[in-house]
Design goal:
The protein is built from 11 helices and 7 strands. The protein is an alpha+beta fold.
Length: 276
């Protein structure tokens, strides 16, 4: 008697990664050399460098290492992970953009093959993540977030807005809430008893409320009359949290509406960057 083959359980992170990698490839396709060399808001990196960085991370997850050699010193390289990232980026700098894109599509295809073949136990297995020990699923959730951010860096540089709504964007924007307590309580120094509501327009809208009671923390329910209400679109919310949009410039351009305490509100906007 022939036994039925048991397929691995579908893992949502696989489809999110497939979607963001496909979107990155699409926005980069058929660009000229000048477009590939455009500077992005990601410090020190061009459009091509952002793609090379993602190639390097996925190759590393396949067990590969960058070519030997020192990465150039740069003020934005602050730790061993940064140095490793720069080694990967440097290894692709002499290549033309279309060739880098071909490498990106090849490595992400290999990674998807691996991910789709993983068992539920492998997805649950504890190990390294950039946020500390956690299941492999958590690591891949961070990979979606990271790749989406680099896609947005690329889109900004190419003046090709998009990717701000849908499952990948919802996932990535949803992760920003994790850092807002730190922004409000530690970086902006909101006083005890303060409440801050982030109203992010889009489909669906995003509402995150932070209260300071001993320590700043996310509230289950947004107060109707907070100390500060900050209203902005998804693009501004993401760029500020990722350190890609200077808070002062955003305030000057009136891309954030502040209700309530204007001084505290402006301070939060200036201090919103918290991702690496």
């Amino acid at each position: 008697m022939r036994l039925a083959t048991v397929s691995p359980v579908a893992e949502p992170m696989v489809e999110l990664l497939a979607n963001v990698w496909s979107s990155i490839a699409d926005v980069c396709r058929e660009r000229d050399d000048a477009a590939w060399e455009r500077r992005t808001d990601c410090p020190g990196w061009s459009v091509k460098d952002n793609v090379a960085h993602m190639i390097g991370t996925e190759r590393m997850l396949l067990g590969e290492q960058p070519a030997s050699g020192d990465a150039p010193d740069a003020p934005y390289v602050r730790n061993d992970i940064g140095r490793m990232n720069e080694q990967w980026v440097e290894s692709y700098r002499s290549m033309r953009g279309p060739d880098v894109l071909s490498e990106f599509e090849a490595v992400t295809t290999r990674r998807l093959d691996v991910l789709r073949g993983m068992s539920p136990d492998a997805w649950d297995a504890e190990g390294f993540t950039p946020e500390g020990p956690g299941p492999y699923r958590q690591f891949m959730a961070i990979r979606v977030f990271d790749c989406w951010y680099h896609e947005q860096d690329i889109r900004e540089a190419l003046d090709a807005p998009g990717g701000l709504e849908g499952a990948v964007a919802d996932h990535s924007l949803g992760r920003i809430a994790r850092g807002l307590s730190y922004v409000v309580g530690k970086k902006a120094g909101a006083p005890q008893g303060s409440t801050v509501v982030f109203d992010v327009t889009g489909s669906p809208p995003i509402v995150v409320a932070i209260g300071v009671d001993g320590r700043a923390a996310v509230l289950d329910t947004a107060p109707s009359n907070p100390t500060v209400r900050l209203t902005m679109d998804r693009r501004t919310y993401a760029r500020l949290a990722g350190g890609r949009g200077a808070g002062e410039r955003v305030l000057d351009d009136q891309r954030v509406a502040i209700e309530g305490d204007p001084e505290l509100g402006a301070r939060i906007v200036r201090e919103m960057a918290f991702t690496i």
